[in-house]
Specification:
There is one protein chain. Helix content is 30%, strand content 23%. By secondary structure, the protein is an alpha+beta fold.
């Protein structure tokens, strides 16, 4: 079966324009899942404007994550979820400590 990290909004949807357009412009965190690989979480990100950032990923432009861009261009079935948070940097760090996504780089702290 497919397993997803449940964000507090609980919405898991196909990563398509109509779904992205309904996302809030609030700050928060978001996750991408590759349905073609049993729903593995492939990227976790944060933004001060969720809708804008998700549109950047969807466009596959220069601001899109390389892993997500590659999966979209290869025709993978990508889904996403999100959670609003005023402390989106802390929320992202907490989620990354729980689940390291394949598209995220581990940052060494000095």
């Amino acid at each position: 079966g497919v397993w997803f990290v449940k964000m507090k909004e609980g919405n898991i949807a196909a990563f398509v324009s109509s779904n992205v357009n309904s996302v809030t412009e609030s700050s928060g965190i978001y996750a991408f899942y590759d349905i073609d690989t049993w729903g593995i979480q492939v990227y976790l990100g944060r933004s001060n404007n969720l809708r804008r950032r998700l549109k950047e990923h969807l466009s596959c432009g220069s601001k899109a994550n390389a892993t997500i861009k590659m999966l979209i261009q290869q025709g993978h079935n990508i889904w996403f979820s999100y959670s609003t948070s005023s402390n989106y940097k802390g929320a992202e760090a907490a989620e990354l400590n729980r689940y390291l996504s394949v598209g995220n780089k581990r940052v060494e702290r000095k």
